[in-house]
Amino acid sequence: MTVALYDDNAEVPWRRISPRLASARRIGLLLAYLPFLLATAVLAATVSRWLWGLPGVVAALFLWQFWLIGRQVSAISYAELPEEIVIRRGRLFRRLVSIPYGRLQYADMGSGPLERHFGLASVTIHTASPASGGRVPGLELPAAEALRERLTARGEAQRAGL
Amino acid sequence: MTIPADDITDRGAQADVPWTHVHPLTPLLRGGVMITGAIGYWLSTQFDNLFGRHGDDPTQDHLLQIAGVGLVIVVLVVAGSWVSWRNTTYRLGPTTVDLRHGIVNRQHRQVRYDRIQAVDVTRPLLARLAGLSSVRIEAAGGRDSNIELSYLPQTRAAEVRQALLRAAAGQGSEVFAGDPSGSPRDAGSGLGGTEKAGGEGVAGEAPASPAGGAATAGGERTAYGHDVGEVPIARIPAMRVWAATLLSFNAAFLVLAIPALVVALVTGSLLVLPWLGPMVLGALGQQVGRFSTWMNFRVDASGSAIRIRHGLTELRTTTVPLHRIQAVEISQPALWRAVDWWRIEVNVAGVHRDPDEKGDNALIPVGTRAEALAILAAMGPRWSLPEVIEGMDAPGPSPSFVGIPPNARVLDPLSWKRIGYAVTSAALVSRGGWLGRRVQLVPHARVQSLTLDQGPLERRLGLANVKLHSTTGPVDPVVRHLALAEATRLLNAEAVRAAGARAVESGGAGNPPAATAPLPCPGALSSLGKGPAQAGSQGAWTE
């Protein structure tokens, strides 16, 4: 089974994450941008109309990131292979990580308030190397729980010493 | 010295191994000297204030009080030290090493032998003057799980270290069958004698070591130094430390910057001071730090481990168990090309060192080619491979290595001919660098996980990087800027190889202790001294 950065090889069971993650992240983005938008708009309205450029820039940044989130979320996929889990993400900076089950130290499940609102959670995989872990975000809660349990079980079955 | 040294040899008392006290001078050395001095100073100033103004004789009429107060303080300090010493005990039990300490807040710390990652013997200056050492035990599970047995007489520290290493290596019944002559020698080494050994050991040892190494094979052990079966591999002479410290960009910078700084000060152009001053200080500090850690550097092989001793003011002994080495980097800064000196750094599982102290992570910070190759040979056949020499020497494309495409020249204008990887039956070898050179080695069985990544520029050029993640350490194995198809192939092939190597090593699932057990080590010693070309003779194959 050959995994690659881009092509969707038919024999690899790539799975996509929930598109609702994009909604969750977009709401988070809006919450982060709203104060800036309001502050710059108030500034422009009260001080000088030449300052309307500021909220314009903020809004443009917001729209760009809004669009980017959709691209990023649709770029995340993962595959559970017999020996390892493979996670791909990123558009501009594309990254594929392949973590053998035998190297798994433990797997975490986490869910922020926004994610929880959409019924989503992420599973984080830890190995003995801090750089080499991986994270699968935007899983439906039951799917995340099931993935974490599968990972733990396979990790125990295939555990290898350092 | 009154410390009974027989608990190490006494295996009969399995359940109740007696507790042993650390050396009585310990509280004094652990800051006691400072506290005593500070109290003394404070008292003297107080007495001056209290009594000095009454007349010519500062102790007029108050001699008794002063003597009394002084005596009380001395008694208190001594009593406090004594209680602290009474309460600091350790023991090497059947399966664990234990340390109890603390007066009010009693602590009991325990490390299982199979959790021990490394055992170091350190000798800070003060302790060294008193002929004492401390034994530092690093265990899996972070900083809090370490134990420091301080201070013990030097010979005793060496025995404890060896016993711990044997226990950690799981050599069963021999664990505590230490040197039976341990206690008499311990008793015989008075303060004067050990002090002398500590002071002279540094300079006196290096010349004597080849003979000493031969003698150790016969079961003898020098007062401080070789253990049974230890084979000397490398010594860094002081001249080379000087030369290597000077042959660096840091030193070149200092040579230019210090006169500039002086000129600036003399001519009064103080504007350069705020930025050049700190730079000079930083560079100077780094060079001094390197110098002091590289001094008296010695490397010895002892069966399943490599021992490093080094330090100018503080002698540090580090033991690197071979089976815990995760990745190796052999590198050569550009300025060392002419003299052909190399540095070997390793990632060791479970040992987290200060990342700023580069020298401390090195198996050898500056070694000749022969020494570097001898260290690789001592590490075993898995590490000493002909591909490593090829990676060190080849200026351009060479038979064993898969290179990177010519259009990577944009990103690596100088080193694109050298960047590449080779696959052997045991490990993946990655090389790079143009003037300064670098070869990285990761055994297939030690790969944690694999990453394939690509930035926007690399995407335009059709290139990708493959990273082989290792545990925390100075070595960060990577093969950069391979053609995308080649990188994809490497990642997939390496995943299969790593899985195969893991399966072979663990010999079946659900067997974690076996997986961490030491690898067969006879090869490590038998191949010692031979060139890696002969030692690594297993059929190396290349993709």
TrEMBL record, chain A:
Q: Where are the transmembrane segments?
A: 27-44, 50-69
Which superkingdom heads the taxonomic lineage of this protein's source? Bacteria
Q: Which keywords does UniProt give here?
A: Membrane, Transmembrane, Transmembrane helix
- Entries under InterPro entries matching the protein: YdbS-like_PH
* Domain YdbS-like PH residue range list: 77-151
What is the name attached to this protein's record? PH domain-containing protein
